[in-house]
Amino acid sequence: MSRAVFVLVFDLTLDLNAKAFIDLQSDHRLKNFPKWMVKVSTFLGLNRKCKVYELDMTNLDFIMYWLSSIYAHTKENIQKDGAQTRQLSPPIFFVGTHKNSLPGGKSEKNAKIKEIFDTLRKMLSEKPYEKHIVARFYAIDNSLRNDGAMQELQIHILKVVEEQPYMNEHVPAPWMAFEYALEEKRQENVQWIDMAEASELATRCKVNAAELSTLLQFQHDTGNCVHFVNTAKADDPLNFCIILNQMWLNDIFKSVITIKPPQDQLALFRSSWDKLASEGLLDEKLARHVWREYEIDPNVLFGLMSKFDLLCEMQFPPEESARRLAEETRVFCLPCCLSETIEAPLLVKDGDCTIRFFVDFAGYLPCGLFFRLMVRAICFSQECGGRSGRDQHLSRYSAKFYIDQDHHLFIRIYTKDRSFLEVMVVRVAGDGDYPSPAVCQMIREFLMAALTDICKIWSKGVTFTFGIPCDQCEAETGRLHLHTFDDCIRASRVPCQERRMATERFQRLFVKGFDHVYIQEKKNFHMIQSLVIDLGTEQMRKFFLNQIQISRGDVGRYLINEQHGKFKGVRLFADQKLKMFRIDADITSFDITIMMLLIRHCCGIVCPDKFWTNPDKQDNSELANLVRIREYRNMNLAHHPNSRIPSNEFEDEWKKLTAIFQGVGVPIDDINTYRQIAV
Predict the structure, then answer these.
(1) Strand, helix or coil at 506?
(2) Cα–Cα–Cα angle for 142, 5, 225, rounded to 5 degrees
(3) In three state form, how does the secondary structure of 508-574 look?
(4) Of the residues 244, 278, 294, the one at which a domain ends
(5) CA 603 to CA 542: how far, in whole Å?
(6) What is the reported pTM?
(7) Rounded mean pLDDT of the chain?
(8) CATH code at 408?
(9) Distance CA 334, CA 544 (A)
(10) pLDDT by residue (tens digit) across 370-379?
(11) H helices within 603-643, ranges in order?
(12) Percent of the chain having pLDDT more than 70?
């Protein structure tokens, strides 16, 4: 959003300190505001009486709310030389309308306008978004067709646009030709193209094939298309799809996010609509029904919604997951669809069995950020062993998640100040009267990583810090007073006016080293990771060299010869090509993905596609077990929520991997060597 110009328009006749309202006719806009911000009121004005939605904020607050929203989604740009005294990108113009409707004569009107603008400037002072505000504010006379201020505003906008740092960026001529070609497609009402068509357009526009991926990333970053690349999974459908019309994509998303009124629901899907509103769970058959008129693979749409952190697939046991995939009966969770009326999960009272902390968003928490965090937390909970839908309780502003058999995680928007998230880790069973330090540290790591990533992708201007609530003053004042994690780490007591809060309990759970359980779980993960990646990749290298009958030093020459032979049409990423197709290629630098590509395409092995992801259980051949090693890396290590494995799970996994490696021909003593490594 930095490559934009914003014009914030407001009505000069409205009292800045009065409650803001929205006409009922604008009902479709209310999705932007949570229920606690809105109430229905009666407005008497303009010679008519009408119902309006009154916001729980003043008109001035409302203006600041939209400024915060713009800033939250902005990546700050540095102005070019000579423009340091002007605003940063994106520039924001303030425009007051209905100047003609202000009471009094010209001097009285001007005095009132000055008073309003001075109030706004005072409120903007020292705010993070102040440096984006264009210095001159405009007051527009709505009664004049050719108002002078409006004409000056138009000229000023053009001048400011010309000063933006990206205006003098040099773009290769073939890239511009490609962009024009995409626009021609849009004009032909083409909503998306596949990678083959994009490659054809690139060739026609004289874009080098090697730079097409960079060009598509540039088009994605500048908002000209939507294209995601999954480097970890070359056959991901998203790798081959380029969305040209973002509004069309938005309409597709909106068609499932917006709950249809009962009178518009087909009886066949009524229960699915109810489940979506009450539990936030989307049945695949409902989505396919709603999307039936859009000419695009629903699996691509599910993937895109996942990329946008709007939904996640609910996990079931492997056999049931395979059945649901085949029958198109998967279930997805969309927290943003949850109804306002859903009862929130009951919070456990603060005590020895809980640890409570907060995430402070410095005065502004975007509405959508909490839903995106819920999506990440659902995935995290499922990776921890939570069952599909049954070990979580979601509501629009709070949620409970399964962490392990002894712990739950509560996250909610803090009711007393909605720019905070309240987090509680609760021990619900097991030995001990306080949460496990390993679990507390794991949850903090997850939240830090998830929020950092969400803000980096979706809300670049949002900042956050973790804080511990002060137990010395909150009960007395009723106000939230936080001590930062850093302060609580450094000292055994932190000051609160004349008193001190002890931090020993916090440090015991979050700071003071790792307990023996944590250390063992880290070691368990490292042992399995080393076995799969170190030994597994080496076994693949031996298999490949034995099949091709070449030495390690001849790998580079062999692959160069096969680049346009056996690898013709094989989709490879740029970094893979750089490693493979060179005379000094070093096979020891090839990872599991590259080795499996070599085995599949160079060894003359003919197997059905299904074999390369899920060999038959009865097949105990060396190749089948090598495929199982690759799949274990992809499914169990690449997406693991942390670098720990509980000891009870470790023994089962080690037994499973031992059988696989013995099937490859590795002696048991060589396998068990990897149980002796140190962390």
Answers:
(1) helix
(2) 125
(3) HHHCCCCCHHHHHHHHHHHHHHHHHHHHHHHHHHHHHHHHHCCCHHHHHHHHHHHCCCCCCCCCCCH
(4) 244
(5) 12
(6) 0.68
(7) 86
(8) 3.30.310.200
(9) 44
(10) 999 999 999 9
(11) 622-632
(12) 89
